[in-house]
Amino acid sequence: MENYLDIFYTGLEKLNIRLSEGQIQQFIKYYNILVETNKVMNLTAITAPKEVIEKHFIDSLSIVKAVDINKNINVIDIGTGAGFPGIPLKISYPQLRITLLDSLNKRIGFLNDVIKLLKLENIETIHGRSEEYGKNKKYREQYDLCVSRAVANLSILSEYCIPFVKIGGKFVAYKSGRCREEVNQAENAVDKLGGKVGKIVDFCIDNTDISRSLVVIDKVMATKTAYPRKAGIPSKEPLV
C-alpha cells in the first residue's frame, strides 16, 4: 500500500481530512492484516491497494460530506463486516466512541485482532443480529450516529439501524448509485421507525466512475417497542 499513498493523500485532501504519520501507519497496518487474513477468511473481494484505498478507506470517510463527526459522539456500525466504515472512522477521528456489530463471529475475531494491532481505544465489538441488540436497553437509542454500508434495501436497513439512534441523532446509510427511488419507497418505513429522511449526498469515488449516495435519516421520535421485529422478519417482510 505504501506505493499508493499519493492516492490516499489526494483523497483525504479532497475530504479536508488531515492525518498524522501515526494514523497513516495505522491504515497501512490495517490494509496488511486485511489482505493477509483475507487469504483464509472471506472478508472482502477488494484487495488491490488502490481499490482498498478508494473503495474502502476513502469511501468510508466520505461521510464527512454529509455529517460533522468532529465531535465526541457515540457511533454504531451495523453489519460492519471487515470494519467498514467503523475502523477508518476510528483511526481518523480517535475521539469517536465506536461499536462494531456483525452477525459472523469470525469477522468479530478479525476486528478484535485489528483493534489490538492498531491499539485502538474506546471501541467495542459485538457479535449478533441487529434485531436482537436493537431491543437491548444497553444499546437501544443510545447512539448519536448509526452508520451502515451493508447491502440491503433502505426499508430493511432502517429497521436494523434506526432503533439504535437516540432522538436528535442520525442514521447514515451508504448506498451505491443514485437512490432517490429507493429512498422514496422507504419513507413510510422510516416514519414508522421514528425517523425522517433528511438530505441525500450524491458523489463519485475519485478516479472512478462509481457513483455513491449518503442518505441521512434524522431520528425525530422514539422507535415504537414493536420494532425491530424478530430476527429474519425485516428482510422477509420489509416495512411499507
Notable features of this structure?
single chain, 240 residues, alpha/beta, Rossmann fold, seven-stranded mixed beta sheet, globular
Strand order of the largest sheet: 3-2-1-4-5-7-6
SS elements, strand count: 7
List low-pLDDT spans.
Answer: none
The proportion of residues in beta strands is 15-25%
Calculate the terminal CA-CA distance, rounded to whole Å. 44 Å
- Provide the CATH topology: Rossmann fold
Describe the largest sheet.
Answer: 7 strands, mixed
* Count, helices: 9
The CATH superfamily appears as Vaccinia Virus protein VP39
In words, what does this structure look like?
The chain is an alpha/beta fold and 240 residues long. The protein has a single domain (69-236), classed as 3-Layer(aba) Sandwich (Rossmann fold), CATH 3.40.50.150. The protein is built from 9 helices and 7 strands. Strands 3-2-1-4-5-7-6 form a 7-stranded mixed sheet, with helices on both faces. Helix 1 (5-14) packs parallel to helix 3 (49-61). The protein starts with a helix and ends with a helix. The relative contact order is 0.13.
Summarize the structure.
By secondary structure, this protein is of the alpha/beta class.
